[in-house]
Amino acid sequence: MTLLPPTPAQQKRIDKELPPNPEMRKQDIRMLREWLSKQPHLPNHIDDSKLEKFLFNCKNSIEKCKLILERYYTVRTSLPEFFLNRDPLSQDIQDSFSVLNFFILPSLTEEGYRVTIFQLRDTDVKKFSLQAIVRRILMILDVRLLEESCLSNIMIIDLEV
């Protein structure tokens, strides 16, 4: 499924959340880079576009962005079972499709939010692999983080079978 880009009106709303001065954005990125260079446990090779996405998702708060970057990369180190083996064609990921529907509505809401729906399909614990489901969701979220522009996310979780 292809996610539709924001309409011109939605994009205008999204752009309002960006710092009005592009130099300010560059300065914020430089500040984040400087901070990252002093964090030996965090990667120092994050490209500018990814840092811009993090900053945008943190409502342009450098301090909040530092906290989120810290958590984002620390959890990857602390829980490798969820971040290694990122092959979407692996058997356990493929099996997770029979247990959980996970879909993203193609259009943003009028306000510029993206809606994601999780729907439990099967409660048979023999088929249920939380690790595979979480890996699948995290892979999708990582792609969306880099490629998508939206103001926020709405997650709907339907556990009724």
Report on this structure.
A hairpin with an 8-residue loop joins strand 1 and strand 2 (113-120). 50% of the residues lie in helices and 12% in strands. The chain has helices spanning 8-16, 22-37, 48-57, 62-78, 80-83, 91-96, 130-147; strands at 100-104, 113-120, 152-158. The chain is built from seven helices and three strands; from the N terminus they run H-H-H-H-H-H-E-E-H-E. The two termini are 24 Å apart.
Draw up the topology in text:
Elements: H1 8-16, H2 22-37, H3 48-57, H4 62-78, H5 80-83, H6 91-96, E1 100-104, E2 113-120, H7 130-147, E3 152-158
Helix pairs in contact: 2-3
List keywords for this structure.
single chain; 161 residues; alpha+beta; 7 helices; flat; CRAL-TRIO domain-containing protein; CRAL-TRIO_dom_sf; CRAL/TRIO_N_dom_sf; phosphatidylinositol bisphosphate binding
Tell me the Rg in angstroms.
18 Å
Poorly predicted runs of 5 or more residues: none
Main sheet strand line-up: 1-2-3
The total strand number stands at 3
Q: Tell me the helix content.
A: 40-55%
Listing every helix as H and every strand as E from the N terminus to the C terminus, the arrangement reads HHHHHHEEHE
- Structural class comes to alpha+beta
* Largest sheet report: 3 strands, mixed
The end-to-end distance, rounded to whole angstroms, is 24 Å
Shape: flat
The DSSP helix count reads 7
Mean residue pLDDT: 92
**How much beta, percentage-wise?**
5-15%
GO molecular function: phosphatidylinositol bisphosphate binding
Region (Disordered): 1-23
Protein name: CRAL-TRIO domain-containing protein
InterPro entries: CRAL-TRIO_dom_sf, CRAL/TRIO_N_dom_sf
